[in-house]
Amino acid sequence: MLAKIEAVLIADQSATFVSRAIDKVDLRFGGIEGDRHFGVTAKANVRQPMYPKGSEIMNRRQLSIVSVEELQLIAERLGVDEIKPEWLGANILISGYPELTKLPLGIRMLLPNGGGLVCEGENEPCTGPGKQIANHYGRKELTHEFVKLARQLRGIVAYVERPGELKSGDQVEIQL
């Protein structure tokens, strides 16, 4: 199955998770250098309650990937014009694979130059992106509505299995 890279983004401002578009990126072990989620390891937090908070663990959230089709469905559910990937802190926006969030763990995405990503499952909706959406539209209720209505549409998290370049317009192969 092929999907098209519509945008590559980076969250490189320390005060926010909001990302911004960049032309291309050299993905490394650890993700996108300079991105807030970059690193082969990370500190355990509320998402890993089985480990002491702050202990070092494998970073399975190096990249956040969303799809054009799922963002449109979220917008429709919320009754708004659009949801931008930047508001969700996404790193990669794809099109052509409308059920991205339903990809099972372990699925690989192969890049045109030989690099590869591994899916680590759904990126659970949370209030941070909900607040960005609410602030943009001036509707406070969207904060919590996003958390409920974006379930199974929020995209996936992934890690870099093999480094490689990624840019808008690239085709990635999703190995089912």
UniProtKB/TrEMBL annotation:
Pfam families assigned to the protein according to its UniProt record, in alphabetical order: MOSC
Listed InterPro entries: MoCF_Sase_C, MOSC_domain, Pyrv_Knase-like_insert_dom_sf
Protein's recorded name: MOSC domain-containing protein
Positions of the MOSC domain: 19-175
Gene3D superfamilies cross-referenced by the UniProt entry: PK beta-barrel domain-like
GO molecular function: catalytic activity; molybdenum ion binding; pyridoxal phosphate binding
Coiled coil location: none
PANTHER family cross-referenced by the UniProt entry: METAL-SULFUR CLUSTER BIOSYNTHESIS PROTEINS YUAD-RELATED (PTHR36930), MOSC DOMAIN-CONTAINING PROTEIN (PTHR36930:SF1)
